[in-house]
Amino acid sequence: MIRLTGVELRRLTARRLTVIGVLAVLVITAFLLFALWRESQPLSAEEQRAAQTQFEQAHKNWVEHGKEDQARCEEDWRTQPEPKPAMEEMCNFREPTVDDFGKPRTVFAEVMPDMLLGSSYLLVFAAFLIGASFVGAEFSTGAIGNWLTFEPRRLRVYGSKVLAAAIGLAPVAAVVLAIVLLGAYLIVDQLGDTANTTGKVWGDLTATGGRAVLLTALGASIGGVVGSLLRHTAAAIGVVMAYLVLIEGVFAGFLNKAQPWLVKTNFDAFVRHDTKYYVNECSSSSDGGYLCNTIEKTLSFEHGAWYLGILAAVLIVVGGAVFYRRDVNS
Whole-number mean pLDDT of the chain? Predict the structure, then answer.
């Protein structure tokens, strides 16, 4: 098994699509860092003067009319029908500050969780594509039949391919995420704020990156499984894109309360170590109308881990059973 996996790893790294896929990920990563650099640029002198002028006007208006506006809003709040929003949310006429105007500084600890999540999407998709092509191409060309004449034990062949896809793509993910972390830190350190980047922040970001690496390896393996089941790279990609567009994209809005069972929500919960999602809860109001409120809920890391783990295990077992019994030439 170890020797077979080594052979499959050499095949994986020698494939043109693998090289192209890795280079594409690096190019997109460079664009992400460039976008962060652009976003972190401070305001020009002219923009700073305009922001200062807006602040002075807003502060003058608050000094002259702030108490009147607060009292009027509180009176309006008392006349609102039940259930009404919290008064602090509806009537918040606090004193304006300079930081409320212009462009806030980029904070490393605030932007990195989203950057790592976005990078994990990219890495898992690329790993799935490479894994599906790695296995699917052998069926579409008929090479798998020749390979089984040298090693007829099918489950060993299947396991070595799935394992090689995971092992081959995991280091790529680790390097890419390290580039994202280091590059973003250097950019924000020059143009933004890294003062709050404590040891705990680095620990949380490193853990997030580790979970993203694990999902990348899992995505490569599942890509190989789907490529084996559908026997063609294009078919594997088509099925996944159809799911993302139809279920996660179009129907997710209608399947409001089913969000804990969607792949993306569980993916986010695993990478972020808990994630937030929103559902609409509607009820009849006292005046006979229909009132809907948006409720924030939390999907736990444990739920995401169990969901993704069971889903991956089922797919790998089904793929192995099909590979073991199905005629490779049919």
Answer: 81
Q: What angle do CA 118, 124, 129 make, to 5 degrees?
A: 130
pLDDT surpasses 60 at 129: yes
Q: Which of 26, 4, 16 is nearest to 177 (CA)?
A: 26
275: phi then psi, degrees, rounded to nearest 5: -145, 160
Q: Is the pTM of this model over 0.70?
A: yes
Q: Which tokens go with 85?
A: 């929003």
Place of tokens 């034990």: 153
The alpha-carbon radius of gyration of the chain (Å, integer) is 26
Q: Under DSSP, is residue 251 helix (H, G, I), strand (E, B) or coil?
A: helix
How many residues can be counted in the chain?
330
Which amino acid, residue 138?
E
Looking at the DSSP bridge assignments, the partners of residue 261 are none
Helices marked H in 142-198 — which ranges?
143-150, 154-191
Residue 258 to residue 269: CA distance in whole angstroms:
15
Helix count (H) and strand count (E) of the chain? 11, 2
Q: Give the β-pairing of 290-299 and 275-284.
A: antiparallel
